[in-house]
Amino acid sequence: TGNVTLDVGFVNTASCQSEITYIDGDAGILRYRGYPIDELAEKSTFIEVSYLLIYGELPTAEQLDAFRSRISRHTMLHEDLKDLLAAFPRDAHPMSVLSAAVSALGTFYQDSLSIKDPDQIELSTIRLMAKLPTIAAYAHKKSQGQPLLYPDNSLNLVENFLRMTFGFPAEPYDVDPTIAKALDMLFILHADHEQNCSTSTVRLVGSAQAHLFASISAGIHALSGPLHGGANSAVLEMLGEIHESGDDVETFMNKVKNKEDGVKLMGFGHRVYKNYDPRAAIAKKFAHEVMEKMGVDDPLLDIAIRLEEIALKDDYFVSRKLYPNVDFYTGLIYKAMGFPTEMFTVLFAIGRLPGWIAQWREMIEDPATKIGRPRQIYVGETERHFTEMDAR
Ligand code: CMC
């Protein structure tokens, strides 16, 4: 096998060169296209950050307007695609619905599948940015057995999504500005994170020259796993279980430290951050603010704070450099906003979409790109000879 090195989980192996996102895991630094995450979270908007990630620069007012209006022209779904969504069982997980529907975009929008034609790449980019929130809201409505709403293009992306998720056809829906602002900010925090599992999946699928819809659909499946984006709902389930068990937080932490039944402190630890995840710091601050503004008093927040306090002092976590990651506090905010737990990872997917698209486009445009094809170290049987059935 020549010079093949074993690197399980790609801990040390870079798969590409990228200009999009910079992380310094020891210092807890995250920047999109050079801009620090806290500046973007405070001063920018999700749509603007999406533009920045995909096209490389902050937009002028004109460029941003044009981007917005192109997106708003594509927010509707093909009516037949809705039939497909209607056929899924009501208790289907919305992440499965989301991925299936994005995959199906490749059957409805065949005029934007070419990876060689920049106009088609642009069209599939806009279609995804426009339609993912609509699909996500439909997936939620479907799970509730509630009527679907058409997009209202007088609203911005986040407001439109909130209305389609929580509104009803016969009633006016007033978007709560606190919720809209908070959700927009959370989408910014999730918008890219260099070569994480789902992004690497998007790039790997795309490296075979599969189209953008196929690549993003694969990325959504990767994100659904509890070690990745699925952690945000797993955190809430964990907090809920601790609360219901009536056990004290220390008892749960002992289980984690003794690795009983493989119990982990969900929302803690990260492959790259060996310091406080800067996104978690922002989300934590926001959890307090949003819940206070909305008058929500959730005992699960107290449990989360207590878990963090213990972990930051405990040798098990300290020696392994385990800190809260982005998923630790976001679920509490989503819950306060009224989202059911199953929707949390869908929200992560909406936020991560511009990052996936930017990374896919960078890969497609990079002349150095080759099909992704890891090697292996074979440890199976050496050559042996076929035994007839009656001799086995
Ligand atoms: N709770 C308890 N122990 C942990 C945890 C945790 N959350 N995370 C890591 N460890 C331990 C792990 O058991 C190992 O211990 P030992 O050295 O005794 O074998 C050590 O810390 C190193 O961990 P690792 O599993 O080798 O680290 P990794 O880089 O392979 O995994 C991770 C990173 C994020 C998958 C992992 O920390 C984890 O499973 N965390 C919980 C799930 C989670 O919150 N995922 C969200 C990640 S952030 C953003 C996102 O993708 O959504």
TrEMBL record:
Domain of life: Bacteria
Active site: H270, D327
Keywords: Acyltransferase, Transferase, Tricarboxylic acid cycle
Catalytic activity: oxaloacetate + acetyl-CoA + H2O = citrate + CoA + H(+)
Membrane-crossing residue ranges in chain numbering: none
Protein's pathway: Carbohydrate metabolism; tricarboxylic acid cycle; isocitrate from oxaloacetate: step 1/2
Any one GO BP annotation for this protein: tricarboxylic acid cycle
Family: Belongs to the citrate synthase family.
Protein name as catalogued: Citrate synthase
Annotated source species: Allobranchiibius huperziae
